[in-house]
Amino acid sequence: MHDLVIRGANVVDGLGNPAQRADVAVKDGRIAAIGTARLEAAKTIDAGGLTLAPGIIDLHTHYDAQVTWDQTCSPSPALGVTTCIMGNCGFGIVPSPPALRETIIRNLAVVEGMDLESLRQGINWEFEDFAGYLAALRRRGSYPNLATFIGHSAVRTAVMGDGAWQRKVPSDAELAEMKRLVKQALQLGAIGFASSHSLNHSGQGGIPMPSTIADLSEVEHLAMAMREVGTGVLQFSSGATTVEAMEELARKTGRAMFMATGVAMYNEADPERGIGVFERCRQAHARGNGVYVQIPCQPLSFDFTLANAYPFFSHEAFAPYKAADEATLKRLYADPSFRAKFRDNLQAPRLGTIFKGNFEQVVIAAVALEKNQPMQNRSVAELAKQKGVDPLDLMFELSLEENLETAFLGKFLNVGDDGVARLLKHEAGVIALSDAGAHTIYFCDAGFGLTMLGKWVRERRDFTLEEGVRRLTSHLADLYGIKDRGRVAPGAFADLMLFDPATVGIGDAYRVPDLPGGGKRTLRKAKGLHGVFVNGVMVHDGQDYLAHAKGPGMVLDSFNPSRVSGRNR
Fold it and tell me: How many other C-beta atoms can be found within 10 angstroms of the C-beta atom of residue 377?
């Protein structure tokens, strides 16, 4: 007898095959049978014609800290996600020597927009190294399946201490120790190596995140551990680093490279730039080198205050002031000559910059003074036009009035549906960049998969349902070497979601004070989602999480090593 049968579902298998009406049986966490014959089980669910598909795979999350206090990894399972990849951009929390933990979380709080006090109160430091971290995850049991990168900034911090963000070149001994840690993590089950050269990745006090000051030769040296071990992918927040440089890394390591870069996203001011990056990746594929772009199916959001104006840091006017204290920043922002220099920068922004002066895409997310409440949720450009002032001046004056506590939300990239659609459809793109678990104070993009199904499949019809599901499931699993997931097929793990294609989508954002210490975060609810299953166990019924003493998710630590280029093998 089977453990579970889901009857009468419209099965979309995640492989791109036509949907079929069928029953799906689950035994011991895997799909045991698919068909129309009467299948008996201890538990039966009547799908009533709803669509049953593989659960969404989220390649770009930052649950590394949250999972130590929240086994659900909320809100991802409630939004159809059954597998999360953590440690992106190289900002993990292992290795974590006790003396460096405060530095680790202070950097993480800034670069990934997390509540610092919640990190202090919430993280259960029952580990110091990668092996201990994986063991802790297994003991706790998460709701989604989890895999994690070993991170460049994390190992640089552990080995070099304060020198990690002060010294561009490590000693030979430090470099050797960093590579040892990377290789050890890969042997223990890391899904790959992650790093960042993004101009916009800064930590506490505006200091650069450690990997961002390292030469690309250091990235290559550490990434070569993947070739030596024979497994892993490289995730690289590449900033202005070229596709050609990424292709060379792919060629030398024999591993696939996944770029996260604003340069490749759609920008209405330069509509051909992004697609040009994708085309260069396609050309790399033709040469046998797998270079891909992580592309979001929604506008890329940035939350910030002018106390840490990281979306502006790539502009020359800010170069000397990334680590300035608030007193210095207040004097700076009041200085007309600084504002003039910043305006000049916006007229001719450097490659890799996020903000290019499009103030209509900057929203006032939260104000500190009651009298300014009417400004909340309105764009800077709209308010500036209403008041007859320059938008840059309005932004700076409001922030100065509110002691630099005004919160802004910018949607600078991936705005313009027709242009974004070209990127989403491209063979070099992978649907990702939710940043789930990060930047939770002001926004929540964890429901990217439901956005894909609601907007790009149903509303715009850029994808068929079968292809839209494939791009969220088996396409990602196969590229990352995740075995037996992302598909509804006999023998595959029963990671599933049950939904109504006619209503599936994502709700409006709302804030709740449910982080450790009462910290607030932003959440969104699913529409049209009726059930989420991980390894055959229902974890969410479309309304609420189901209680499990230990979550059914697995720690993924073994990956298919055959996917090393842009071509299937």
Answer: 12
Structure tokens at 266: 């759609």
Structure tokens given for 341: 């220099």
What single string gives the DSSP state of each residue in 459-520? Answer: IS-SS-HHHHHHHHTHHHHHHHTBTT-SS-STTSB--EEEE-TTT-EE---EEE--SGGG--
Helix, strand, or coil (residue 31): strand
Q: Which helix (H) or strand (E) holds 101?
A: helix 101-111
Q: Tell me the C-alpha distance between 514 and 441, whole Å.
A: 11
- Distant-in-sequence, close-in-space partners of 301: CB < 8 Å, separation ≥ 6: 409, 410, 411, 439, 442, 443, 445
Tens of pLDDT, residues 389-438: 999 999 999 999 999 999 998 888 898 999 999 999 999 999 999 999 99
Alpha-carbon gap, residue 193 to 209, rounded angstroms: 16
Phi then psi for residue 374, to 5 deg, are -60, -20
Q: What is the reported pTM?
A: 0.90
Could you tell me which of 56, 58, 54, 51 has the C-alpha nearest to residue 26?
Answer: 54
| C-alpha span between 32 and 42 (Å, rounded) | 14
Are the C-beta atoms of residues 454 and 536 closer than 8 Å to each other?
A: no
Q: Which CATH superfamily is domain 56-299+414-480+487-527 in?
A: Metal-dependent hydrolases (3.20.20.140)
- Retrieve residue 514's tokens: 């449910």
Q: What length does the chain have?
A: 569
Quote the tokens at residue 461: 């019809």
Residue in the structure block whose two tokens are 């030398």: 252
Query: Across residues 5-21, what is the average pLDDT?
Result: 98
Q: How far is CA 43 from the centre of its chain?
A: 35
Domain boundaries, the chain: 56-299+414-480+487-527, 304-410
Q: For the residues 520-537, what does the mean pLDDT come to? A: 96
